Inverse folding.
């Protein structure tokens, strides 16, 4: 099962069966019902959602204490299990299963997450939102509002769309990197360092407690080699949650990227 297979499946489902042309038309519970899966809500301990299937029918139960975007993602996640294993599922999914799957279930949970991401923010509708867009906090909030999704999921989807050449990275208050996600074409020498880089806007935010807003910084700050020494890169850094800080890094001028790729490929 590939990402393209999931994308094509969801687009066909939404366009051919439901005629969905706008984000506001995505009613994930109604879509589940049409797929013979009834959605219920009740307080759950130790998990965000569960699905029980019997034959061609299923019941998806989501945690009633979660917020709306989380509930919608949970439904999409369990639908992913249903699409993959219809008729033979009985599954409990914790918050960590959805956020950061590990162990033997990692591939299975990642697949369900891919379904959820595509069901809630389908690629064919996201493209319209990204036309002539800047990679910044305003874009994330705009897409988040349009699709009624969580901030983190929205940010991941925007980066995974490969529309902007760059990445997002999250650093802790102590300067250590927590996680990052990137454009699939971004070469390794442009990956964010494991500690917050001096000269970056996120360094100023974390270390110097200065919020300088979005703008250009020297390219070498976000490149591990010398490909961007004479370039600039757009960066928007902001506080995310508790001791976590986000930086959106966007190479508007992609020339350093392609020079690096061409050199490494011997072109």
């Amino acid at each position: 099962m590939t990402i393209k297979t999931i994308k094509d499946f969801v687009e066909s489902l939404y366009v051919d069966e439901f005629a969905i042309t706008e984000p506001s038309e995505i009613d994930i519970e109604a879509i589940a019902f049409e797929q013979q899966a009834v959605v219920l809500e009740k307080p759950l301990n130790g998990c965000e959602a569960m699905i029980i299937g019997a034959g061609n029918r299923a019941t998806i139960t989501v945690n009633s204490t979660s917020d709306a975007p989380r509930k919608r993602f949970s439904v999409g996640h369990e639908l992913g299990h249903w699409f993959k294993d219809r008729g033979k599922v009985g599954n409990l999914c914790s918050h960590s299963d959805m956020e950061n799957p590990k162990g033997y279930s990692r591939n299975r949970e990642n697949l369900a997450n891919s379904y959820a991401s595509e069901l809630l923010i389908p690629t064919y509708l996201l493209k319209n939102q990204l036309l002539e867009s800047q990679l910044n906090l305003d874009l994330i909030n705009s897409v988040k509002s349009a699709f009624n999704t969580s901030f983190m999921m929205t940010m991941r989807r925007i980066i995974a769309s490969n529309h902007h050449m760059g990445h997002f990275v999250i650093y802790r208050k102590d300067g250590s990197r927590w996680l990052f996600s990137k454009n699939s074409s971004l070469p390794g020498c442009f990956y964010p360092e494991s500690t917050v880089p001096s000269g970056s806007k996120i360094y100023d935010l974390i270390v110097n407690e200065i919020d300088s807003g979005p703008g250009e910084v020297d390219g070498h700050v976000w490149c591990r080699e010398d490909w961007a020494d004479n370039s600039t890169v757009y960066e928007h850094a902001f506080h995310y949650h508790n001791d976590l800080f986000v930086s959106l890094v966007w190479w508007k001028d992609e020339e350093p990227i392609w020079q690096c790729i061409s050199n490494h490929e011997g072109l």
